[in-house]
Amino acid sequence: MKMNAIVAGVGMTKFGKHLERGLKSIGSEAVVAALADAGLSQDDLQAAWVGNAAAGLVTGQECIRGQVILRSIGLGRLPVINVENACASGSTAVNQAAAMVSAGLYDCVLALGVEKLYHEDKRKSFSAFSGAVDVEFVQEMMAALQQSAGAGGGSAGASGAGEKRSMFMDIYAAATRAHMDRYGTTAEQLAMVTAKNSLHGSMNPRAQFRDRMTVEEVLAAPMIAEPLTRPMCSPIGDGAAAVILVSEKKAREMGITKPVRIVSSVLRSGWDHGYDDPSSGELSASEVYAEAGVGPEDLQLVELHDASSFGEIMAYEYLGLCPKGQGGKLVADGVTTLGGRLPVNTSGGLLRKGHPVGATGAAQVVEITEQLQGRSGERQVAGARVGLAQNGGGNLGVDVAAMCITVLKV
Amino acid sequence: MKMNAIVAGVGMTKFGKHLERGLKSIGSEAVVAALADAGLSQDDLQAAWVGNAAAGLVTGQECIRGQVILRSIGLGRLPVINVENACASGSTAVNQAAAMVSAGLYDCVLALGVEKLYHEDKRKSFSAFSGAVDVEFVQEMMAALQQSAGAGGGSAGASGAGEKRSMFMDIYAAATRAHMDRYGTTAEQLAMVTAKNSLHGSMNPRAQFRDRMTVEEVLAAPMIAEPLTRPMCSPIGDGAAAVILVSEKKAREMGITKPVRIVSSVLRSGWDHGYDDPSSGELSASEVYAEAGVGPEDLQLVELHDASSFGEIMAYEYLGLCPKGQGGKLVADGVTTLGGRLPVNTSGGLLRKGHPVGATGAAQVVEITEQLQGRSGERQVAGARVGLAQNGGGNLGVDVAAMCITVLKV
How many other C-beta atoms are found inside a 10 Å radius of the C-beta of residue B146? Predict the structure, then answer.
């Protein structure tokens, strides 16, 4: 969808393990920071979209997550819409908020992504991922497997939570092996993605991991699902990111002289496509470029959904940053490293900045906004004028459940 | 918000106990019915908002509820936004879908409300309500209570689920007693609400309860929370309701000659207001009337959130259907009974049609649409031209968490 929503302010927490803090503490920190960044008061906010994926399963806070967070800073009366799209919940909040502002329905709104995954009971943390697949289908499949094995004992339910975490990485690993077979992508190239993002993350004070890793260290780490080692898989984490979007009129009133704009944002669901059909990623990419009036060659930076290092290589390809099959080569050539032609995941990405599920999509917009405003410190991309954020979520089989791609310009 | 979205089709399941059916089966039945009612194909849908409150806690299906339901009928690629606002999740889906169509962003969209509360494990059903309050606050309160009581044994967590169901009715009961003290509202008047809605529900083939109850029977039923007896409290249930909304342009192409329109819909969060401040209900009512260009005197029917029979009396007052304190008298005078001046809850309401939480707000729009189209059979309100739907959800203390009021006209 073609859009025109101006980013008036951004704020986020450090991503990581905040065992002692709750959803309210984390979420409100990001909102207060974004308001301060915008120079606005909370009474300026006319509506809020709040993305969260797993608080229902992890903390028990379902239903009214946004209201509970906003009330903790005394904010009420405004419309609050709690949105969910698994790992794409944060970008869904931004997409909806931007659409409403672009359509002239509001002048000043909040998009918040927030997640609290660390829990004293680790099973609760892992249960967060169990709801992001077709649960009825998985249960039926499990029952059928148990029946065909003739096994009586052992419940799939209670022990399943931990397994489902690796199920996601199993899906990634199978796709990785197919890509290696077909295009000659190597384990070294996968490790280069993590090494690059660790370099970027080392310069980001809000990243969960700030140590730099070499390709050799990444390859030598424990194997999660062949060929993906642990640092090739994003960690779980807690965190929040907030984006305040305003209309052209409000931006003028605020005296914003060099506005960062969301010019296009596309949200799509996955579908049961054949091998030669376009995936939701390809469909969304071509749509978002057309509506933004730019192509991949016009971008100066990209934040994308590297839930695994192979996820980044796949995204290079469906975003058109390189020809199909050449994603491994793109990172190996240094194109996507800071200083290269098109730096990708300057924040450190999901792999190193961290991946508090519902916060991730909003945090990508925070990174791109700060880059376009030239305030990213040592990881600044010089002269960046156009950036793209890509966030995917959930799994429906051959495709993700939700895909959101957004283009920002200054 | 002033709106102009035309209801092209509606569909819903029977509300009740569907122990053998899952979220996909229930949700897709409503969608297929609404498409058939509109004479549209699923490929006509450009976006979908799906409201659900508790599948994460009851069935484990979090994150991508809408995609999983729509995929079961082969529908993908379109944007799907999963929204949540406790008992107001369904109306939130309608509100967002209507806003987007009214703003010209889409020509044909789906709003679906769906809920699956019955579970073989009853604790799971009751856990649905535990997420609709400020969970951190409740946990802190429980911990403080246990500490001050010096009690060591017994975990509040595991046993708390059942108690929290009655906590909602305790909140209602305390407000009811205050109203009785202040305004002389009687237990008989509360029972009259249920008796009236049971009469209406007896004429609704999709209602969960179809038996008629007398005032005496309602009063003689088991007490849930003084003065609320069981039939004065809405039941839990399973069900789904779908609404297809189209633009003026699309309605013309479809040859719709007598369109039912959403002309105004207001969504607001609750706030920590003082006794003399307007509640979210009062704020929303005055806004929705102003934007629809109508007043309470222009309505011919109302569907409102009778989660308890006192909830209906309260809503009479903040919707301006009678002066403050006169809600009990309004039902006693027969004004809100079919055949009276302003029939309320002709569907049977939450008390008798049932209350599958996330479906309720969408089901209210189904009832009003069918009434305005003159196809409500023996419960038809003759010559109805303007109807209002009011749906509230969650609790934040002195106010609900979410309030949504929508006006429809033919």
Answer: 15
Window 210-229 of B: residues touching A by CB (8 A cutoff) are: none
Cα angle: A233, vertex A266, B360; to 5 degrees: 95
| Interface contact A64-B271, CB threshold 8 A | no
CA dihedral (A76, A81, A86, A90) positive or negative: negative
Q: Alpha-carbon distance A186 to A213, whole Å?
A: 18
- Is residue B405 within 8 A of residue B288, CB to CB? The reply is yes
* A283 interface with B at CB cutoff 8 Å: yes
DSSP β-bridge partners for residue A243: A10, A111
Tens digits of per-residue pLDDT, A134-188? 767 666 665 665 565 554 333 333 333 334 445 677 888 889 999 999 999 999 9
CB B62 within 8 A of CB A84: yes
Closest CA to B72 of A316, A137, A192: A137
Cβ atoms of residues A382 and A362 within 8 Å: no
The whole-number average pLDDT for the span A66-94 is: 95
* Average per-residue pLDDT for chain A: 90
pLDDT in tens, B262-283: 999 999 999 999 888 999 999 9
- Cβ atoms of B404 and B391 within 8 Å: the answer is yes
| Mean pLDDT of chain B, nearest integer | 90
Distance separating alpha carbons of residues A344 and A328, to the nearest angstrom: 13
Angle at CA of residue B193, ends B329 and B214, nearest 5°: 110
End-to-end CA distance of chain B: 18
Yes or no: say if A361 and A92 are a contact pair by the CB < 8 Å rule: yes
Residues of A in contact with B95 (CB under 8 A): 79
Phi, psi of B245 (to 5 degrees): -115, 135
Is residue B153 predicted with pLDDT exceeding 70? no
Q: Among B181, B186, B167, B179, which Cα is nearest to B225's?
A: B167
- Contact between chains at A131 and B82 (C-beta distance less than 8 A): no
What pLDDT does residue B141 have? 59
* Residue B246 pLDDT exceeds 80: yes
